[in-house]
Amino acid sequence: MAPHDTPLIAWDDALALDGSAIDRQHKALVDLINQLRGHLGSPDREAQVMQCLTAMYLHAKDHFWDEEAFMERIGYPDKKKHAELHREFVLKLHSLTDCCLTGEAPYAELLDFLVSWFQEHVTTQDVKIVAFAQSQGAG
Ligand SMILES: [Fe+2]
Ligand SMILES: [Fe+2]
To answer: What is the mean pLDDT of residues 100-116?
Structure first.
């Protein structure tokens, strides 16, 4: 795990796709993931973590909604498969959040999941939506 003075996920060119609302929403999610790690050292850890996870869940739902509407608008051919990946993320986030609520607190697993899912999803999946939109002149 990275030292606490460096962000878990650095916002860089690999994550910035097209400078649109999608990027702004991704950046907000990156900020929340980075904040989550910061909360682990808080004396009020459980409450801070739950507040952060709730914000992340709401941001993710809004973002997925917007991204799926965008895919629909541009006629993205893999929309259904991509939306399924979003659903899987939400389910996993739910189950890890439940574990935190019941005191199992799998914080390391939670952070690993968020960091790897986000980086992998944006750089291998979301990037394809943006490339398709640009190829259609719809970016
Ligand atoms: Fe996506
Ligand atoms: Fe996305």
So the answer is: 88
